[in-house]
Amino acid sequence: MTFQAPKGTFDWLPPRSERVLAVREALVQPVRQAGYGYIETPTFEDTELFKRGVGESTDVVTKEMYTFLDKGGRSITLRPEGTAPVVRAVLQHGLHNGQLPVKLWYSGSQFRYERAQKGRYRHFWQVGAEALGAEDPALDAELILLAWQGYQSLGLRRVELLINSLGDRECRPAYRGTLQEFLRGLDLDEETRRRIEINPLRVLDDKRPEVQAQLGDAPLMVDHLCEACKAYHEEVRSLLAAAGVPYTDEPRLVRGLDYYTRTTFEFVHGGLGSQSAVGGGGRYDGLSELIGGPSLPSVGWALGVDRTLLAMEAEGLLDDTGEGRVAVYGVPLGEEARRRMFLLMAELRRAGVSADMAFGGKGLKGAMKGADRSGARFALILGERDLAARAVQLKDLTTAEQTEVPLAQVVEIVKGKLS
Ligand code: HAM
Protein backbone atom coordinates (compact mmCIF):
# COMPACT_ATOMS: atom_id res chain seq x y z
CA MET A 1 0.00 0.00 0.00
CA THR A 2 1.23 3.48 -0.76
CA PHE A 3 0.09 6.66 0.91
CA GLN A 4 -1.38 9.78 -0.62
CA ALA A 5 -1.23 13.29 0.82
CA PRO A 6 -4.49 13.95 2.72
CA LYS A 7 -7.40 15.36 0.73
CA GLY A 8 -7.10 19.08 0.13
CA THR A 9 -3.33 19.09 0.61
CA PHE A 10 -0.48 18.71 -1.83
CA ASP A 11 3.28 18.68 -2.05
CA TRP A 12 5.42 21.37 -3.62
CA LEU A 13 8.09 19.65 -5.69
CA PRO A 14 11.10 20.96 -7.59
CA PRO A 15 11.40 22.91 -9.78
CA ARG A 16 8.03 24.59 -8.97
CA SER A 17 8.82 24.61 -5.26
CA GLU A 18 11.63 27.08 -5.93
CA ARG A 19 9.08 29.47 -7.37
CA VAL A 20 7.06 29.21 -4.18
CA LEU A 21 10.05 30.39 -2.20
CA ALA A 22 10.63 33.21 -4.65
CA VAL A 23 6.99 34.30 -4.44
CA ARG A 24 7.08 34.39 -0.65
CA GLU A 25 10.28 36.37 -0.79
CA ALA A 26 8.84 38.88 -3.26
CA LEU A 27 5.64 39.40 -1.27
CA VAL A 28 7.59 39.98 1.90
CA GLN A 29 10.24 42.30 0.49
CA PRO A 30 8.14 45.54 0.44
CA VAL A 31 6.95 44.91 4.00
CA ARG A 32 10.46 44.48 5.32
CA GLN A 33 11.43 47.71 3.64
CA ALA A 34 8.68 49.45 5.59
CA GLY A 35 10.04 48.38 8.96
CA TYR A 36 7.89 45.34 9.67
CA GLY A 37 9.66 42.74 11.85
CA TYR A 38 9.39 38.98 11.49
CA ILE A 39 7.20 37.06 13.91
CA GLU A 40 6.69 33.34 14.12
CA THR A 41 3.90 31.96 16.27
CA PRO A 42 3.09 28.29 16.93
CA THR A 43 1.19 26.31 14.34
CA PHE A 44 -1.46 25.54 16.95
CA GLU A 45 -3.14 27.62 19.62
CA ASP A 46 -5.73 27.38 22.35
CA THR A 47 -9.05 26.77 20.54
CA GLU A 48 -10.71 29.56 22.51
CA LEU A 49 -8.41 32.14 20.88
CA PHE A 50 -9.97 31.54 17.48
CA LYS A 51 -13.49 31.17 18.82
CA ARG A 52 -13.31 34.58 20.40
CA GLY A 53 -10.97 36.23 17.92
CA VAL A 54 -12.29 35.03 14.57
CA GLY A 55 -15.89 34.81 15.78
CA GLU A 56 -18.34 32.07 16.76
CA SER A 57 -20.63 32.79 13.82
CA THR A 58 -18.02 32.44 11.08
CA ASP A 59 -17.70 29.41 8.80
CA VAL A 60 -14.07 29.23 9.82
CA VAL A 61 -14.95 28.60 13.48
CA THR A 62 -18.18 26.62 13.08
CA LYS A 63 -17.14 24.29 10.26
CA GLU A 64 -13.51 24.54 9.30
CA MET A 65 -11.24 24.26 12.30
CA TYR A 66 -8.91 21.34 12.90
CA THR A 67 -9.56 20.98 16.62
CA PHE A 68 -8.43 18.18 18.92
CA LEU A 69 -7.74 17.44 22.55
CA ASP A 70 -4.07 17.01 23.33
CA LYS A 71 -2.87 14.39 25.77
CA GLY A 72 -3.24 16.90 28.59
CA GLY A 73 -6.91 17.36 27.76
CA ARG A 74 -6.50 20.87 26.33
CA SER A 75 -8.52 21.88 23.30
CA ILE A 76 -6.04 22.78 20.60
CA THR A 77 -6.68 24.12 17.09
CA LEU A 78 -4.36 24.21 14.10
CA ARG A 79 -4.31 27.87 13.16
CA PRO A 80 -6.86 28.73 10.44
CA GLU A 81 -5.38 32.24 10.13
CA GLY A 82 -2.56 34.33 11.53
CA THR A 83 -4.08 37.52 12.91
CA ALA A 84 -5.52 36.28 16.20
CA PRO A 85 -2.23 34.49 17.03
CA VAL A 86 -0.23 37.65 16.29
CA VAL A 87 -2.46 39.75 18.55
CA ARG A 88 -2.20 37.06 21.23
CA ALA A 89 1.62 37.16 20.99
CA VAL A 90 1.75 40.97 21.10
CA LEU A 91 -0.41 41.03 24.24
CA GLN A 92 1.43 38.15 25.89
CA HIS A 93 4.82 39.80 25.45
CA GLY A 94 3.65 43.35 26.05
CA LEU A 95 4.95 44.56 22.68
CA HIS A 96 2.13 47.11 22.68
CA ASN A 97 3.73 48.83 25.66
CA GLY A 98 6.57 50.02 23.45
CA GLN A 99 6.53 52.12 20.31
CA LEU A 100 3.29 52.01 18.33
CA PRO A 101 2.33 50.79 15.87
CA VAL A 102 3.90 47.39 16.37
CA LYS A 103 4.64 46.26 12.81
CA LEU A 104 4.99 42.53 12.19
CA TRP A 105 5.04 40.12 9.28
CA TYR A 106 4.78 36.36 9.10
CA SER A 107 4.79 33.53 6.62
CA GLY A 108 3.31 30.17 7.38
CA SER A 109 0.82 27.45 6.70
CA GLN A 110 -2.81 27.72 7.73
CA PHE A 111 -5.39 24.97 8.11
CA ARG A 112 -9.06 25.07 7.21
CA TYR A 113 -11.34 22.12 6.67
CA GLU A 114 -12.89 23.55 3.50
CA ARG A 115 -14.44 21.87 0.51
CA ALA A 116 -11.33 21.18 -1.52
CA GLN A 117 -11.18 22.55 -5.05
CA LYS A 118 -8.74 24.40 -7.27
CA GLY A 119 -7.34 27.28 -5.22
CA ARG A 120 -9.05 26.13 -2.05
CA TYR A 121 -7.02 23.82 0.10
CA ARG A 122 -7.10 22.49 3.63
CA HIS A 123 -3.46 23.30 4.13
CA PHE A 124 -2.32 26.49 2.47
CA TRP A 125 0.31 29.15 2.84
CA GLN A 126 -0.08 32.80 3.71
CA VAL A 127 2.27 35.73 3.95
CA GLY A 128 0.82 38.25 6.38
CA ALA A 129 1.49 41.70 7.78
CA GLU A 130 -0.08 43.36 10.79
CA ALA A 131 0.31 46.88 12.23
CA LEU A 132 -1.03 47.09 15.76
CA GLY A 133 -1.86 50.01 17.97
CA ALA A 134 -2.51 52.92 15.62
CA GLU A 135 -5.60 54.41 14.09
CA ASP A 136 -4.32 56.26 11.07
CA PRO A 137 -5.61 56.06 7.50
CA ALA A 138 -2.02 56.33 6.27
CA LEU A 139 -1.29 53.00 7.95
CA ASP A 140 -4.18 51.27 6.16
CA ALA A 141 -3.04 52.83 2.88
CA GLU A 142 0.58 51.86 3.54
CA LEU A 143 -0.31 48.21 4.03
CA ILE A 144 -2.47 48.10 0.91
CA LEU A 145 0.29 49.77 -1.09
CA LEU A 146 2.87 47.26 0.18
CA ALA A 147 0.74 44.31 -0.89
CA TRP A 148 0.15 45.96 -4.24
CA GLN A 149 3.88 46.44 -4.72
CA GLY A 150 4.45 42.77 -3.89
CA TYR A 151 2.05 41.65 -6.62
CA GLN A 152 3.52 44.16 -9.08
CA SER A 153 7.05 42.95 -8.42
CA LEU A 154 5.96 39.44 -9.41
CA GLY A 155 4.80 40.82 -12.74
CA LEU A 156 1.09 40.27 -12.02
CA ARG A 157 -1.06 42.60 -14.10
CA ARG A 158 -4.54 41.29 -13.45
CA VAL A 159 -4.77 41.74 -9.71
CA GLU A 160 -7.63 44.04 -8.80
CA LEU A 161 -8.09 45.78 -5.45
CA LEU A 162 -11.59 45.96 -3.97
CA ILE A 163 -12.17 48.14 -0.94
CA ASN A 164 -14.99 48.87 1.46
CA SER A 165 -15.65 50.18 4.94
CA LEU A 166 -17.54 48.11 7.48
CA GLY A 167 -18.04 50.98 9.93
CA ASP A 168 -17.31 50.85 13.62
CA ARG A 169 -19.11 50.34 16.92
CA GLU A 170 -20.76 53.74 16.49
CA CYS A 171 -22.46 53.15 13.17
CA ARG A 172 -22.45 49.41 12.53
CA PRO A 173 -25.12 48.35 15.07
CA ALA A 174 -27.74 50.70 13.61
CA TYR A 175 -26.87 49.60 10.07
CA ARG A 176 -27.01 45.97 11.15
CA GLY A 177 -30.56 46.51 12.40
CA THR A 178 -31.62 48.22 9.19
CA LEU A 179 -30.12 45.41 7.13
CA GLN A 180 -31.80 42.74 9.25
CA GLU A 181 -35.15 44.41 8.79
CA PHE A 182 -34.65 44.42 5.03
CA LEU A 183 -33.44 40.79 4.92
CA ARG A 184 -36.29 39.48 7.06
CA GLY A 185 -38.69 40.61 4.34
CA LEU A 186 -37.04 38.40 1.67
CA ASP A 187 -37.82 34.89 0.54
CA LEU A 188 -34.91 32.92 1.98
CA ASP A 189 -34.25 29.39 3.22
CA GLU A 190 -34.09 28.46 6.90
CA GLU A 191 -30.33 28.50 7.23
CA THR A 192 -30.04 31.92 5.64
CA ARG A 193 -32.84 33.18 7.91
CA ARG A 194 -30.83 32.04 10.90
CA ARG A 195 -27.82 33.82 9.50
CA ILE A 196 -29.79 37.09 9.34
CA GLU A 197 -30.05 36.99 13.12
CA ILE A 198 -26.43 36.04 13.80
CA ASN A 199 -24.40 37.65 11.06
CA PRO A 200 -26.59 39.56 8.58
CA LEU A 201 -23.67 41.13 6.71
CA ARG A 202 -22.61 37.70 5.50
CA VAL A 203 -25.92 37.33 3.68
CA LEU A 204 -24.82 40.13 1.35
CA ASP A 205 -21.92 37.90 0.39
CA ASP A 206 -24.14 34.93 -0.54
CA LYS A 207 -23.15 33.99 -4.08
CA ARG A 208 -26.35 32.10 -5.01
CA PRO A 209 -28.18 33.85 -7.86
CA GLU A 210 -31.61 33.45 -6.22
CA VAL A 211 -30.29 35.30 -3.18
CA GLN A 212 -28.35 37.91 -5.13
CA ALA A 213 -31.47 38.65 -7.20
CA GLN A 214 -33.25 39.84 -4.07
CA LEU A 215 -30.41 41.98 -2.77
CA GLY A 216 -30.55 44.75 -5.36
CA ASP A 217 -32.08 47.26 -2.93
CA ALA A 218 -30.30 46.06 0.19
CA PRO A 219 -29.07 48.91 2.39
CA LEU A 220 -25.29 49.26 2.22
CA MET A 221 -22.85 50.08 5.00
CA VAL A 222 -21.20 52.86 2.99
CA ASP A 223 -24.48 54.79 3.02
CA HIS A 224 -24.76 54.42 6.80
CA LEU A 225 -21.24 55.29 7.96
CA CYS A 226 -20.89 57.77 10.83
CA GLU A 227 -18.96 60.98 10.13
CA ALA A 228 -15.72 59.65 11.61
CA CYS A 229 -15.81 56.42 9.58
CA LYS A 230 -16.73 58.29 6.45
CA ALA A 231 -13.84 60.74 6.82
CA TYR A 232 -11.46 57.88 7.61
CA HIS A 233 -12.52 55.93 4.54
CA GLU A 234 -12.26 58.99 2.30
CA GLU A 235 -8.72 59.57 3.50
CA VAL A 236 -7.64 55.96 2.86
CA ARG A 237 -9.05 56.17 -0.66
CA SER A 238 -7.42 59.48 -1.37
CA LEU A 239 -4.02 58.24 -0.14
CA LEU A 240 -4.31 55.19 -2.38
CA ALA A 241 -5.14 57.39 -5.32
CA ALA A 242 -2.18 59.65 -4.53
CA ALA A 243 0.12 56.61 -4.41
CA GLY A 244 -1.17 55.46 -7.80
CA VAL A 245 -2.86 52.31 -6.52
CA PRO A 246 -5.97 51.64 -8.59
CA TYR A 247 -8.96 50.40 -6.60
CA THR A 248 -12.62 49.62 -7.04
CA ASP A 249 -15.20 50.46 -4.39
CA GLU A 250 -17.07 47.29 -3.54
CA PRO A 251 -19.84 48.21 -1.11
CA ARG A 252 -20.85 44.56 -0.75
CA LEU A 253 -17.44 43.32 0.21
CA VAL A 254 -17.88 41.42 3.46
CA ARG A 255 -15.01 39.37 4.77
CA GLY A 256 -15.29 35.89 6.22
CA LEU A 257 -13.87 36.75 9.63
CA ASP A 258 -15.81 38.66 12.27
CA TYR A 259 -13.15 40.99 13.62
CA TYR A 260 -13.19 43.60 10.88
CA THR A 261 -14.05 47.26 11.38
CA ARG A 262 -13.77 50.19 8.97
CA THR A 263 -11.33 49.51 6.11
CA THR A 264 -11.66 46.11 4.48
CA PHE A 265 -10.16 45.05 1.19
CA GLU A 266 -9.52 42.12 -1.05
CA PHE A 267 -7.15 41.52 -3.94
CA VAL A 268 -8.85 39.44 -6.61
CA HIS A 269 -7.55 37.91 -9.82
CA GLY A 270 -9.62 37.33 -12.92
CA GLY A 271 -7.84 34.13 -13.96
CA LEU A 272 -8.72 31.99 -10.95
CA GLY A 273 -12.38 31.06 -11.28
CA SER A 274 -14.49 31.01 -8.14
CA GLN A 275 -11.63 31.21 -5.63
CA SER A 276 -10.53 34.57 -6.95
CA ALA A 277 -9.18 36.24 -3.78
CA VAL A 278 -5.41 36.20 -3.80
CA GLY A 279 -5.25 38.25 -0.62
CA GLY A 280 -7.33 40.20 1.82
CA GLY A 281 -7.41 42.09 5.04
CA GLY A 282 -8.57 45.15 6.87
CA ARG A 283 -8.82 46.96 10.14
CA TYR A 284 -9.65 45.09 13.32
CA ASP A 285 -9.94 47.75 16.00
CA GLY A 286 -11.78 45.53 18.49
CA LEU A 287 -9.89 42.24 18.23
CA SER A 288 -7.50 42.87 21.12
CA GLU A 289 -10.41 43.55 23.47
CA LEU A 290 -12.22 40.43 22.25
CA ILE A 291 -9.34 38.32 23.48
CA GLY A 292 -8.88 40.13 26.77
CA GLY A 293 -6.45 42.90 25.85
CA PRO A 294 -6.68 46.69 25.96
CA SER A 295 -7.97 48.79 23.09
CA LEU A 296 -5.48 48.29 20.24
CA PRO A 297 -6.74 49.56 16.90
CA SER A 298 -4.93 47.62 14.19
CA VAL A 299 -4.87 46.76 10.51
CA GLY A 300 -3.36 43.98 8.45
CA TRP A 301 -3.59 41.56 5.57
CA ALA A 302 -2.74 38.06 4.50
CA LEU A 303 -1.84 37.08 0.96
CA GLY A 304 -2.42 33.54 -0.25
CA VAL A 305 0.82 32.14 -1.62
CA ASP A 306 -0.83 29.17 -3.37
CA ARG A 307 -3.37 31.35 -5.15
CA THR A 308 -0.71 33.90 -6.05
CA LEU A 309 1.12 31.09 -7.82
CA LEU A 310 -2.06 30.06 -9.63
CA ALA A 311 -2.51 33.69 -10.68
CA MET A 312 1.04 33.78 -12.01
CA GLU A 313 0.39 30.60 -13.91
CA ALA A 314 -2.78 32.12 -15.40
CA GLU A 315 -0.70 35.08 -16.61
CA GLY A 316 1.98 32.82 -18.08
CA LEU A 317 4.56 34.02 -15.59
CA LEU A 318 5.68 30.57 -14.54
CA ASP A 319 6.71 29.32 -17.94
CA ASP A 320 10.06 27.71 -17.59
CA THR A 321 12.87 30.18 -17.90
CA GLY A 322 15.15 27.27 -18.79
CA GLU A 323 17.41 28.18 -15.93
CA GLY A 324 19.50 25.25 -14.68
CA ARG A 325 19.50 23.73 -11.26
CA VAL A 326 23.26 24.05 -11.03
CA ALA A 327 25.96 25.72 -13.14
CA VAL A 328 28.45 22.86 -13.15
CA TYR A 329 28.02 19.09 -13.23
CA GLY A 330 30.81 16.69 -12.36
CA VAL A 331 31.31 13.42 -14.20
CA PRO A 332 33.83 11.23 -12.34
CA LEU A 333 34.96 8.04 -14.00
CA GLY A 334 36.28 5.58 -11.43
CA GLU A 335 36.90 5.44 -7.68
CA GLU A 336 39.83 7.80 -7.47
CA ALA A 337 38.13 10.34 -9.73
CA ARG A 338 35.04 10.24 -7.55
CA ARG A 339 37.08 11.18 -4.48
CA ARG A 340 38.74 14.06 -6.30
CA MET A 341 35.44 15.21 -7.82
CA PHE A 342 33.78 15.24 -4.41
CA LEU A 343 36.43 17.73 -3.23
CA LEU A 344 36.28 19.73 -6.44
CA MET A 345 32.52 20.18 -6.03
CA ALA A 346 33.08 21.50 -2.51
CA GLU A 347 35.75 23.92 -3.80
CA LEU A 348 33.43 25.20 -6.52
CA ARG A 349 30.58 25.78 -4.09
CA ARG A 350 32.90 27.57 -1.70
CA ALA A 351 33.82 29.84 -4.58
CA GLY A 352 30.11 30.58 -5.10
CA VAL A 353 29.55 28.28 -8.09
CA SER A 354 26.59 25.90 -7.79
CA ALA A 355 27.69 22.38 -8.55
CA ASP A 356 26.36 18.83 -8.50
CA MET A 357 27.89 15.56 -9.69
CA ALA A 358 26.91 12.09 -10.80
CA PHE A 359 26.49 9.71 -7.89
CA GLY A 360 26.09 5.97 -7.81
CA GLY A 361 29.02 4.95 -10.01
CA LYS A 362 27.40 5.75 -13.36
CA GLY A 363 29.33 5.23 -16.57
CA LEU A 364 30.16 8.10 -18.94
CA LYS A 365 26.90 7.84 -20.85
CA GLY A 366 24.63 7.77 -17.81
CA ALA A 367 26.58 10.54 -16.11
CA MET A 368 26.42 12.79 -19.19
CA LYS A 369 22.67 12.29 -19.27
CA GLY A 370 22.61 13.55 -15.69
CA ALA A 371 24.66 16.55 -16.77
CA ASP A 372 22.12 17.41 -19.47
CA ARG A 373 19.20 17.01 -17.10
CA SER A 374 20.79 19.22 -14.49
CA GLY A 375 20.64 22.16 -16.88
CA ALA A 376 24.30 22.88 -16.09
CA ARG A 377 26.28 25.10 -18.41
CA PHE A 378 29.49 23.08 -17.94
CA ALA A 379 30.36 19.45 -17.34
CA LEU A 380 33.66 18.54 -15.71
CA ILE A 381 34.77 15.11 -16.82
CA LEU A 382 37.47 13.45 -14.79
CA GLY A 383 38.97 10.10 -15.83
CA GLU A 384 42.07 8.17 -14.76
CA ARG A 385 44.17 9.67 -17.50
CA ASP A 386 43.11 13.17 -16.49
CA LEU A 387 44.04 12.47 -12.90
CA ALA A 388 47.50 11.36 -13.94
CA ALA A 389 47.88 14.57 -15.95
CA ARG A 390 46.41 16.67 -13.10
CA ALA A 391 43.84 17.94 -15.56
CA VAL A 392 40.09 17.81 -16.12
CA GLN A 393 37.95 18.01 -19.26
CA LEU A 394 35.77 21.10 -19.30
CA LYS A 395 32.81 20.66 -21.60
CA ASP A 396 30.58 23.58 -22.52
CA LEU A 397 27.18 21.91 -22.71
CA THR A 398 25.67 24.63 -24.87
CA THR A 399 28.30 24.36 -27.63
CA ALA A 400 29.63 20.83 -26.91
CA GLU A 401 33.10 22.32 -27.07
CA GLN A 402 35.58 20.50 -24.83
CA THR A 403 38.93 21.72 -23.49
CA GLU A 404 41.43 20.33 -21.07
CA VAL A 405 42.23 22.55 -18.10
CA PRO A 406 44.62 22.07 -15.15
CA LEU A 407 42.83 20.79 -12.04
CA ALA A 408 44.55 23.44 -9.95
CA GLN A 409 43.00 26.22 -12.01
CA VAL A 410 39.62 24.82 -12.92
CA VAL A 411 37.67 26.68 -10.22
CA GLU A 412 39.04 30.00 -11.33
CA ILE A 413 38.52 29.24 -15.02
CA VAL A 414 34.93 28.13 -14.55
CA LYS A 415 34.19 31.13 -12.37
CA GLY A 416 35.60 33.42 -15.03
CA LYS A 417 33.55 31.80 -17.79
CA LEU A 418 30.35 32.05 -15.75
CA SER A 419 30.71 35.72 -14.88
P1 HAM B 1 -8.55 35.46 4.56
O1 HAM B 1 -9.27 36.30 3.56
O2 HAM B 1 -9.32 34.42 5.25
O3 HAM B 1 -7.93 36.48 5.62
O4 HAM B 1 -7.31 34.80 3.88
C1 HAM B 1 -6.37 35.58 3.17
C2 HAM B 1 -5.97 34.87 1.89
O5 HAM B 1 -5.53 33.55 2.16
C3 HAM B 1 -7.11 34.70 0.90
O6 HAM B 1 -7.30 35.86 0.14
C4 HAM B 1 -6.59 33.54 0.04
O7 HAM B 1 -5.69 34.01 -0.94
C5 HAM B 1 -5.84 32.72 1.05
N1 HAM B 1 -6.69 31.58 1.47
C6 HAM B 1 -7.67 31.59 2.40
N2 HAM B 1 -8.22 30.36 2.50
C7 HAM B 1 -7.60 29.57 1.61
C8 HAM B 1 -7.71 28.19 1.24
N3 HAM B 1 -8.57 27.37 1.83
N4 HAM B 1 -6.88 27.72 0.26
C9 HAM B 1 -5.97 28.52 -0.33
N5 HAM B 1 -5.82 29.81 -0.01
C10 HAM B 1 -6.61 30.35 0.94
C11 HAM B 1 -7.22 36.11 6.70
O8 HAM B 1 -6.77 35.02 6.89
C12 HAM B 1 -6.92 37.28 7.63
N6 HAM B 1 -6.14 36.76 8.76
C13 HAM B 1 -6.21 38.38 6.91
C14 HAM B 1 -5.90 39.54 7.79
C15 HAM B 1 -4.72 39.84 8.35
N7 HAM B 1 -6.75 40.46 8.18
C16 HAM B 1 -6.15 41.32 8.98
N8 HAM B 1 -4.92 40.95 9.10
Keywords:
Rossmann fold, alpha+beta, BirA Bifunctional Protein, domain 2, 419 residues, 8-stranded mixed sheet, binds histidyl-adenosine monophosphate, single chain
Describe the overall structure.
With 419 residues, this protein is α+β, with helices and mostly antiparallel strands. The chain has two domains: 246 residues, Bira Bifunctional Protein, Domain 2 (BirA Bifunctional Protein, domain 2); 91 residues, 3-Layer(aba) Sandwich (Rossmann fold), CATH 3.40.50.800. It is 38% helix and 21% strand. The chain has an eight-stranded mixed beta sheet, with helices on both faces. The protein has a five-stranded mixed beta sheet with strand order 13-12-14-15-16, sandwiched between helices. It is elongated and about 90 Å long. The site of histidyl-adenosine monophosphate (HAM) has 26 residues, from strand 6, strand 10, strand 11 and helix 12.
Number of helices: 16
Number of domains: 2
User: What ligands can be seen in this structure?
Assistant: histidyl-adenosine monophosphate
CATH level 3 topology of the largest domain:
BirA Bifunctional Protein, domain 2
Per CATH, the class of the largest domain reads Alpha Beta
> What portion of residues is helical?
25-40%
Using only C-alpha atoms, the radius of gyration works out to 28 Å
Q: Globular, elongated, flat, extended or rod-shaped: what is the shape?
A: elongated
Counted beta strands: 16
Report the end-to-end length measured between terminal Cα atoms. Answer: 49 Å
CATH 4th-level superfamily of the largest domain: Bira Bifunctional Protein, Domain 2
